Task: inverse folding
C-alpha cells in the first residue's frame, strides 16, 4: 500500500551534512511536491551530560569509542511517542546488503527512522531492543552513516509514485527484475563512426524490446552472474 506522503526521520551527530544531498535533484523535487518530509535530528541535543557527548569507552577494553544508548533511546522514544514507524533502520557494514528489492519495499512505508552510526559503532543493546532493520550499502567501512543514509534515502524516494515524472523509467532500472539494465543510446545516431545499433532505429517496438531483454540478460551473465541464481 502506498501513502500520500512519506516521513523520514534521520538521527545523526552531523545534521548539516544533509543540506547538500537533500537540496538537489529528485530528493529536492520530492520534498517540493510534498511527497516526502525529511527531518534531521541532532543526536547531541538528546545527550544529558554537560559536554553533550554521545560516546564512551567500550566495556572490556579495546580501541574505538562506542555510541551511548541513552541519547539514541531518548531520541527514538520521543519520535515513537508522536507516530508509528514502519521501520527503525540502523546503517552498518555488518548487515544485509541493500538491494533494489529492499528499496522497493521501503518505498511503500509511511514513516521511517534512519540512525547514522559513528566511531566503533553503537551499543549492542540499541540493536537488540530498538532497531527493527539493519542495512549495509556495501562491504566496506565509511567514517559514519551519513553517506549511507543519503544513499538509502535517495533509493527509496525515487520510487514513490509521482516523484519521477515518467514512473516507467524507474521500473526499467537495473536490479528491478534481478537483471542489469540494457545499453542505452541517444542522438546523434552516428558519432565519430560510433554507431547506435540499427535495431533501435527500426521503429519495430517488439523487436526492440526483445533486443533489450537479450542484452540485459547478456550483461547480467557477464557482469553479475550471481543475480541469476
Result:
Amino acid at each position: 500500500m502506498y501513502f500520500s506522503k512519506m516521513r523520514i526521520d534521520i538521527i545523526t551527530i552531523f545534521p548539516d551534512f544533509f543540506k547538500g544531498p537533500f537540496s538537489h535533484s529528485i530528493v529536492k523535487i520530492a520534498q517540493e511536491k510534498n511527497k516526502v518530509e525529511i527531518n534531521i535530528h541532532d543526536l547531541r541535543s538528546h545527550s544529558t551530560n554537560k559536554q553533550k557527548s554521545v560516546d564512551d569507552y567500550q566495556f572490556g577494553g579495546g580501541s574505538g569509542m562506542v555510541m551511548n544508548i541513552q541519547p539514541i533511546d531518548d531520541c527514538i522514544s520521543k519520535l515513537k511517542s508522536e507516530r508509528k514507524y514502519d521501520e527503525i533502520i540502523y546503517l552498518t557494514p555488518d548487515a544485509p546488503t541493500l538491494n533494489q528489492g529492499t528499496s522497493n519495499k521501503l518505498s511503500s512505508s509511511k514513516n521511517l527512522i534512519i540512525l547514522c552510526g559513528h566511531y566503533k559503532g553503537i551499543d549492542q543493546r540499541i540493536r537488540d531492543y530498538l532497531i527493527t532493520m539493519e542495512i549495509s550499502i556495501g562491504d566496506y567501512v565509511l567514517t559514519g552513516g551519513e553517506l549511507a543514509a543519503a544513499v538509502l534515502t535517495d533509493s527509496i524516494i525515487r520510487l514513490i509514485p509521482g516523484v519521477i515524472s515518467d514512473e516507467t523509467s524507474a521500473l526499467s532500472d537495473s536490479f528491478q527484475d534481478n537483471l542489469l539494465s540494457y545499453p542505452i543510446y541517444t542522438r546523434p545516431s552516428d558519432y565519430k563512426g560510433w554507431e547506435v545499433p540499427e535495431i533501435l532505429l527500426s521503429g519495430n517496438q517488439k523487436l526492440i524490446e526483445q533486443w533489450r531483454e537479450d542484452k540485459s540478460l547478456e550483461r547480467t551473465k557477464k557482469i553479475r552472474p550471481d543475480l541469476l541464481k
